[in-house]
Every structure is written in C-alpha cells, then in structure tokens.
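quick one before i forget lol
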Amino acid sequence: MKTKIAQSRWKNIIKLGLFVCVIGIIVQLFPTDNKFKYQFEIGKPWSYELITASFDFPIYKSEQQLSKEKSEILKNYTPYFKLDTIVEKTQFKQLLSDWYKKSGETPKFQNYIRYKFRNIYSVGIISVEEYNRLLDENRPNISCIMPNRVSHTISLNEVYTPKTAYEEIIRNAPEAIKSYDLNLYLVENLHYDSLTSELSKTDVLKSLSLTSGMVQSGERIIDRGEIVTPETYLVLKSLKIEYEKRKGSLQQSTIVVIGEIIIILSLISLFFLYIYLFRPRLFDSFSNLLFISLLIVMIVALASLTIQFTSFSVYIVPFALLPIIIRVFFDSRTALFAHIITMLIISFIVDNSFQFILLQITIGMVAVSSLKDMTQRSQLAQTALYIFLSYTFIYLAYECVSEGEIQRIHWSPVISFAISSFFLLFAYVLIYIFEKIFGLISSITLVELTNINSDLMMRFAELAPGTFQHTLQVSNLATEAAKKINANSLLVRTGALYHDIGKMKRAEFFTENQMGGTNPLSEMQYEEAARVVISHVTDGIEIAKKSRLPEQIINFISTHHGTGKTRYFYNSFINAYPNKKPNDAAFTYPGPLPNTKETAILMMADGVEARSRSLSIYTEDSINEMVESMIDGQIADGQFKEAPITFRDVETVKAVFKEKIKNIYHTRIVYPEVKKLEE
C-alpha cells in the first residue's frame, strides 16, 4: 500500500515538473523584441480595438514635413571653405623657375602676372566640381575661413574656378603673356571644410522642432472601423515610436516576465485541468501528457521563430498539425481544446490577434470535423484541402468587412495559406514517428490493421476459418456497441479481428474449425484440455509480437477472457469428480482483466457471440435471456472491475447485442416446392 502511494506521489511530482517545464519553455519562446503590435496605412480602416493613449507622448512630424522645414532653415546656411594663401606664392615662384629653365631668362610682364595672381588667389580658386555642387544646392554664398581663423562671407559669383581665373588674367593682357601656359599654375586654394560646415549645419538645425503637439494620457486615438487619416497616421506612428522606446527599456523587467508567466500559466493550467477532469485516462499516462505538451511547445516554437528570425508571414506555419495529430491519436474534443489554448498563447505575439484567432479556431474546427470518422489515409489530404479553402474564404470575408473594397484586399496571405496546407501532408511522417517514440496507435494504423486481405489475416482465414468467421461477427457486434457508448469503435474493431489469432496454432482443437468427427479435446484429461484452450491466449500474444502488432492490440488478446474459467471443462471436472477439489489455476485464464471500455466491450461481444452459436432455438426471449445471462455472469465474476465502464454503458451494450443477434438469426420463410403434375 505504501509502495503504491509513493509511486503515485512520484508520478504527480513528475507531472508537475512537466507542467512547469512547458510554461518555462513557452515563456522563453516569447519574442524579446519591442515590436509594435499594430499595422496601419493611410486611407485604410482600423481593424483593431479602440486605442487610447496609456501615457503622454509627442506627435512626431512626418518625414515630408521635416524635410520641407529643414530645407527652409538651410536656405540661410552657407558652407565653409578654407583659403590657402601659400598657394599663390608657391605657384608664382614655380612659374618663374620653369620659364627660366625653358628660355634662360625671366618672363616679361612678371609684375603684371604677380598682380593678377595676388588678386585672384586672395579671392580664391575653387574646383569645378565644388562650384557645380554649390550651384545645384542653390548656395549663393560661401563662408571663407582665413589662416587666422577669421571668416567672411563672399558671393559664389566672386569666386574663381581654374578656367575663369585664366580668363581673368588674359583679359586685356599683352599678347606675349598668352604663350606662358599660365593655366598650369592656376590651382584650387579654396577647400571645403566638412567639419566646420557640418557643425554649422547642426547648429542651424537645432531650431528645428521634431514634434508638432502632444497626446495626453487617456486621450482617444482611433476605434475599430475608422479610416486612418494622415493626422491619425502621425499620431499612431508617434505612439509606435514611444512604445518601442519604452518597451526597449522595460523589455526584460520583472513585471513584463511576470505578466507573460501569468498569461501562459493560466492557459496551460486550463488545459491540464481539462485533461484531469474529462480525460483521466490521458492524465494518468505521463507519456500521453508529454506527447501533447511536446506538440504544443513545437507549434509555439515554430510561430515564435518565424516571427523573430524570418520575413515570412506567420500563417506559413502549419498550425492545423496540432489538432490533426491529436485527433488521430486521441479524440476530437481534446484536439480542439489543445488547439484553442495554443492559438490563444500565440495570439499574444502576432499582429492582428483578432484576425489570427478567428482564422485558427475556424481551421481547428474544420480539422477535427473532417477527421471525425477516420477510415482511410486520403482523408488527411482532403483535410488539408478543406483547411486551405476555409483559410481562404474566412480571410477574404474578413478582408471584405475590414477594407470595404475588393481592390484593397491583400492577396499575399493566400499564398501562405497554400504553403501551410501543403505542409500538413507531412503529418503522415510525424504520425509514424510519434507512434514509434511514444508507443501510440493512430487511426491510420488501425485502418491498415483492419485490412482482412493482409498476409496475417489471410493466413488466419486459411488455418482457422471458423475462428476467422467468429472474429468477424465479434468485430461487428463490438463496433456497434462501441459507437453507442462513445468508445473508440475503430480500436475495438481492430482488436476484435486479432483477439483469437492464437487459435491458428492449434485450430483443430476448437469446435468452430472442426468439420464433424471426434473432438481431440474429448480424448484428453480435463485439465490438459483446459490448458490447450487457455494456450490460445499466450499463443496469440506470441504471434502478435512476431507480427509486430501494437501493444494496444496485444492488450485485447491478453484480456478478452480476463481471469475467467474454461467453464465447460471446469464444470465437467466437478461433475466427474464430485469429491475431488479442482485445481482452479489449471482452468483459469492468466488475465489480466479488461482495463478499458474497449477491452470490456470485446469480452462481452466474444462471450455473447460464442454463446449464441449454442442456442437450440432463436427466439426473442431466448436471445434476450442468453445475452443477459452471459454478461451478468461476467459482471458477477468481477471481470469488469478494472474497466472504466458504467452500468448504463453495460445496459446499452446489451441492447445492441440483442438487436444485432436477432438480425443475424432472424426467422426466414420456407419457400414452397413446385408440385409435379400427374400424368
């Protein structure tokens, strides 16, 4: 007893650890950037909730407005150029030296040249490129910085370029001067001073205001459906700037992390509470909890990584994988509940969360509805198509409501929907992987196992034809009963087909496979005969394991007789040896007892179908009495005490069996013979 309590306590601690890990991982996956959560454009309706200012913030001017005001201010700005006074002396000296080397004498009119050089260089020579740039920028003046750091403003028209300087010298000059190649000695001595110019420009722009008003805390900004005007656009853009500034400074603060933890804790707690209250079998299995938790974390991670590290739309993530995979392994309600909880978590990190939630809940419902009765693999491809169509129709309808005009609809998300739906086809691979890792069994695998044309089933039908027909009848009975009490009908059907495969090994010892003659069991001792009959359970488990059947199917084989007795041989022994106490173990099946609704249904169906073959007459009363007697005997024997099946369920199962057996053994009319005419 203490050991069981200790084991239960450890299981609960492990589940609590899983719960904490899921919350911690999801908190870490939440984006850490300071991205503004709203998208808006001038002329388009606001598709979010009412926005009011939660703090005071300035209204920043638009880029166009700032550019215009900046241009106005910079009209009075003059760039700075440094004047090099040494160039004039250096160039004149070079001229005299070059001419003397060339002709052996000093140039004529050197005083005239010296005079012109001094006048021109004192004003300044600027490069043609700089001159043209100043003209393009509409700068009529420049500030000239002298060697003594004193500056003065001069008109651009007064400044020389090398060409205009040469023209100034030869204008009205003696003819002999034109042969001196004076243009070689006219170089720039006015150079742009970028540092001083930028400092001056910055000083001028200090008077430029970046804002044009204030928004007070609590002030209404815009409500859903209102058109974003240029004025509202500036306010929203200003709010975005201030929000990102504030969020950046508070990004990893304690209060932000606490808020995220509370949100995620609440949602994950709701999901675990749902499993605890409504799916206790899932909650009791740690591997099932781990599997579902892994799926939730995987989808949140895909969404988070897509938002943070790619430029793709978040709708490229195949969110429908979550409800599809959970539905394939478990049930529709759990699949939809897990999907809604996960999408609520992701909605806190996506743009336009209302649209996101609307689309995701829709495709979640489509996914679980289209897989209600999983009978073939093609249903997954059909589900992917239905999800794409649902995505597209709901999105376009939402856009029509939001935009009001077809021309304004954004069509690019439809491509993301198509890619996401295509990714759903990889569910085949994921389902196979999860089956192997977590020991689960999917509807797809069950559908494959129900194929009676498989090698194992064909061999079963050949070696034990009577038993094979028995399993088909049991399968039909159990399937109908399972549907009525909301059990897994596909699992029951599959388990029923394989529950007696152990009889293949010694088919001739079982009456349904005997074609008259002596029954070999009648020639054996009662205990030995009982062992032969009981061995079909262990033989079936052995065959199932060699054929690599899932554990869930093997469970049907081992539990379909529970710990019941081989009543025929047990009672015969007592009758033959009234004074001898029988060895109960020799006549008792090894068990275990049925531990699920499905295995309990199979035990009832197996017993009822076998007993129905022994009826001498088939009337409504005899069938009703037979069904009641068979199942009540199993209950009295304690065969269902470990199965989560109610008395109401049992009564429903009885009613189904009675109706089905009546239909199988209904009375037929006798066709009259044609009498021969007398000759």
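fyi The chain has a mean pLDDT of 87.
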